[in-house]
Amino acid sequence: MTLFVQQLLIGIGNGVIYASVALALVLIYRTTGILNFAQGEMALVTTYVLWQLTDSGVPIGAAVPLAVVVGFVMGALIERVIVRRVEESSALTVVIVTIGMFLAANSIAQFFFGSDSKIVPRSIPDKATTIADVKITLQPIALAGLLVLECLVLWLLLQRTKLGLALRAVSSNPDSSRLVGISTGTMLMAGWAIAAALGALGGAAAVSGGEALDASLMQRLLVFAFAAAAIGGFDSPLGAVVGGIIVGVANAMTTTYLADANNGVDWLKGITLVVPFGLIALVLLFRPTGLFGRRVVERV
Amino acid sequence: MRRDHFVAGAIGAVALVVLLWVPQYFDADQTRVVAQGIILATAALGLNVLTGYNGQISIGHGAFFGVGAYTTAILMNDHGWRWLPTIPVVIVLLAVVGALAGFPALRVKGLYLALVTLGLAALFPDLTKRFVHGVGGTNVVQPPTVSPLLRGEVPGIVSTPKWAERFVDMDDQWRYYMILATAIVVFVIVTNLVAGRFGRALVAVRDHETAAAVLGVNPRRIKIAAFSLSAVFAGIAGSCAVLQSGTANAEATEVFQQSIYFLIAVVVGGTATRVGPVIGGFVVAFLQEWLTDWVNAIPGIPDWVSERPVLTPAFFGIALILLMYGLPDGLVGGGRRIAARLRRRSTPGGTTPRTAAT
């Protein structure tokens, strides 16, 4: 039982990190209809910026918000300079452009910051208490709190502000929103900027416990974030959060119980990824647009 | 229209002659890059059936490529098979695996499907590490019969047969010709398939599933068939890769990269066009291999750019973005637009060529 609760907490902790990147994916998908392959690498760049800031003496508490601001500006610039020109093209063309950004961002990050791993100082202190034999560390709890806060702010922004209304209008009907005087270009830019800022926060969360930072960090993360978004439904922020936690917990449980060296399931050893991806296939088989995704009704 | 057919035939003949002539003129290393282009083109031809004509995006075909490569490599390595007999096995196996992998496509669409296929690409390397026992217990399988170091010493080695020795000096040249021949067969099969009833059914299901069903096309069967076929061609490309490199291998980044390259080849060449994936395959292979050299050849390029191999993917990524800016519907689409403009100019009265012909 102790082990179970312990692993549950670890799973939730990882899930929260997947969820924050998935949230960024969902936000861009909601506002622009684009699946952004470069999301993880954009977060990689801001996380390197975070490391650079702390390395040159900025305290971590100030460096994280600064990295988020850098992400915000970077997202807006990327939309304006790179994505704007293909927004009207077919979905596949846009996918290839984001793949191009993915390759370029990763290699440019390595160019500037080297291929050795960097250590970002802890942004969440290494504190733990023991309650009924379960060691509870601060990191997953703080990250979960952060995620709840992110969701709340995002919800308030989208549902309770003029800007959010405009963002939603542009995503549901660009032509009509242009007619009522909304600047669609600015809204798309805002969507990318907010998503990149969320991604930056996700990147900071991924290294919040003093984890090593290298150029492959986000590629592992992105696969799970994709999985989270697919399970939850691409157009649902709530889905991204739930999906992230499902994937995180499923992962932790598989490695602990099913693939355990002593008494696990023999054939699962070394192929634990079967479980999260089997889960996606299963969820999508019954709900093709994810748990919380809106079903698209086509008129015939 | 007849003139168009003639022009197309002439271009095809020239391309074939150039491809046949490649290993005679270029050195082994350059030939290798062209062979990689042919292999990419083979897989992209298959993926184009699924993504181009049937509209289903897959970013997991690297896994099918890998299944083909491993099947060939293991049969040759552990069971002493020759290369060619492994191809029918690859075809049957991939037809089944592809159909099974296509089942989610019956319910899941668009981006969601793309992510299910991404799962395949993510899972495949772990599966090979678990179940393949290759060199030194790793998942690398190197059949000695295609090793570039051995020549004619091992029985069953893929070497130049007696009758061809007059034209081909080196075994790696012979392997190039085998890869080329395979790709040509695949090209002819795919071209005929998409030109006929099956091709129209693919497009009908892509454009409007319900309408296609009303017309008597079974969308489920077509979708599964598209998946299965594209997996078969990706698998054959994998077998060709074993012939070319002598190795079957699956690293997580590689399988993902491979899957992306196939998709890039399709889109850069031109989705749902007959020669697009072929051109795209060569473009991806050449950019991948030589773009850094080309960038470094630009006069006045600063040292801090030219001396860093780490930037290669950045050049490639930027080239992709620029290609998509200039030719959003691929090289074939862009070429057609230019050709149409030229023809309109040359036709008196500015009528379009089609009305001029009838």
Describe the structure.
The complex is a heterodimer of chains A (300) and B (358). By secondary structure, chain A is mainly alpha-helical. Chain A has one domain. Helix content of chain A is 70%, strand content 4%. Chain A contains eleven helices and four strands. Chain A has helices at 2-32, 39-55, 60-83, 91-113, 138-160, 162-172, 174-179, 184-206, 217-232, 237-258, 274-286, and strands at residues 118-119, 128-131, 134-137, 212-213. In chain A, the strands form two sheets. A two-stranded antiparallel sheet of chain A has the order 1-4. A two-stranded antiparallel ribbon of chain A has the order 2-3. Chain B is mainly alpha-helical and 358 residues long. Chain B has one domain (2-252). In chain B, 73% of the residues lie in helices and 0% in strands. Chain B has helices at 2-25, 28-53, 61-79, 83-102, 110-131, 171-195, 197-207, 209-214, 219-245, 252-269, 276-297, 303-306, 312-326, 330-346, 353-357. At the A-B interface, helix 4, helix 9 and helix 11 of A face helix 5, helix 10 and helix 13 of B.
User: What do the pLDDT scores of chain B average to?
Assistant: 83
Question: What structural category characterises the helix and strand content of chain A?
Answer: mainly alpha
Uncertain runs of chain A are none
Task: State the largest interface.
Answer: A-B, 50 and 46 residues
Order of helices and strands of chain B: HHHHHHHHHHHHHHH
Can you give me a brief rundown of this structure?
The complex is a heterodimer of chains A (300) and B (358). Chain A has 300 residues and is mostly helical.
Which tags fit this structure?
heterodimer; A: 300 residues; two-stranded antiparallel ribbon; 11 helices; globular; B: 358 residues; 15 helices; 73% helix; disordered C terminus
List the helices and strands and how they pair.
The complex is a heterodimer of chains A (300) and B (358).
Chain A: H1 2-32, H2 39-55, H3 60-83, H4 91-113, E1 118-119, E2 128-131, E3 134-137, H5 138-160, H6 162-172, H7 174-179, H8 184-206, E4 212-213, H9 217-232, H10 237-258, H11 274-286
Antiparallel strand pairs in A: 1-4, 2-3
Helix pairs in contact in A: 1-5, 1-8, 1-9, 1-10, 2-3, 2-4, 2-8, 2-9, 3-8, 5-6, 6-8, 9-10, 9-11
Chain B: H1 2-25, H2 28-53, H3 61-79, H4 83-102, H5 110-131, H6 171-195, H7 197-207, H8 209-214, H9 219-245, H10 252-269, H11 276-297, H12 303-306, H13 312-326, H14 330-346, H15 353-357
